[in-house]
Design goal:
Number of domains: 2
Number of helices: 10
Order of helices and strands: EHHHEEEEEHHHHHHH
Oligomer: single chain
Helix content: 40-55%
Number of strands: 6
Largest sheet: 4 strands, mixed
Radius of gyration: 23 Å
């Protein structure tokens, strides 16, 4: 895969140097301690006076509100150091997202639609999203509420070490899969599946949605073969990644047994096969995972 020198997307937000705001809200620990001290010395009037002063400073722009409320602002001395390896991964993500933008803009135009580009945030540890708090433990994910992909780059280490799926195109496949969910959001498929939550067969529809995202990742790969100079080894990397993160493979690895009725993403064989279908087809309309019987997926 030849990605260096390719166009980088402008829709990537680098949040690696920011501290995540806490989910509890309220006054931050430092501010609370200060108010407690004021209260002990001057009573309730002193606390009220301190609050009035604090918010006056916010209004004048002297103090940041997030800092006052303990929202996790990062000062100059708190910036997280970024290694050269991590910076290269960040540039790689920007190139892959740019490639998906190019492919889906053309593919949507072919079917008479306009492609709306998603955002992508690279973060560390935890981050706030339109779908709630995101964490590195969740792996890469797409939030339909804010139409943004989120990824902690440490996932690529896990992909290589835990799932034995190293390689840059394996990493690219992961992003393309999440962008596939954005495509589903734009055409209305993901909203229809979300409306089925609570139904006994909801997991089956979740599997259909995930397999279609794998198909869409394959469509992207089909159109990227020339620009990214993909070869057979690159495709094998993506196939290995799809195989490694099937529900059956993960369950067997993590709990020693497979529970088919709890599947939400599809088996290794299904994920690999639907990615291959997209790779061979290259057309969005060939990825209907909803019409056929579930057992035939």
């Amino acid at each position: 895969m030849d990605w260096k020198g390719q166009r980088e997307s402008d829709n990537v937000d680098d949040a690696r140097g920011r501290a995540s705001s806490g989910g509890g809200g309220g006054i931050g620990g430092g501010a609370f301690s200060l108010l407690a001290l004021v209260g002990r010395k001057f009573g309730i009037k002193g606390i009220l006076g301190a609050l009035v002063l604090g918010f006056a400073l916010v209004k004048c722009g002297i103090v940041d509100l997030n800092t006052l409320l303990g929202g996790g602002s990062v000062g100059p001395g708190q910036q997280t150091q970024v290694s050269p390896e991590d910076e290269e991964r960040f540039r790689f993500v920007k190139v892959v997202l740019g490639s998906t933008e190019d492919v889906w803009t053309k593919e949507f135009a072919r079917i008479g639609r306009k492609y709306e580009q998603p955002g992508l945030q690279v973060y560390r540890g935890r981050t706030q999203t339109g779908c709630g708090t995101g964490s590195a433990e969740m792996g890469p994910f797409y939030c339909p509420a804010d139409r943004k992909v989120y990824i902690d780059l440490s996932f690529y280490d896990e992909l290589a070490q835990t799932f034995n799926s190293p390689g840059d195109f394996a990493q690219a496949y992961v992003i393309a899969h999440e962008v596939g969910h954005h495509v589903q959001k734009l055409v209305g498929t993901s909203d229809k599946v979300a409306a089925m939550q609570g139904r006994p067969d909801y997991n089956e529809y979740s599997v259909r949605l995930e397999l279609q995202a794998d198909f869409l990742a394959g469509v992207w790969a089909n159109h990227s073969q020339q620009t990214l100079k993909l070869d057979r080894s690159d495709i094998e990397e993506a196939m290995r990644a799809a195989n490694a993160i099937g529900d059956d493979a993960i369950q067997k690895k993590m709990q020693g047994r497979v529970v088919p009725h709890s599947f939400t993403h599809g088996t290794s064989e299904q994920r690999t096969r639907w990615f291959q279908k997209g790779l061979l087809s290259g057309k969005i309309e060939d990825g209907d995972t909803f019409s056929m019987p579930y057992k035939d997926l």
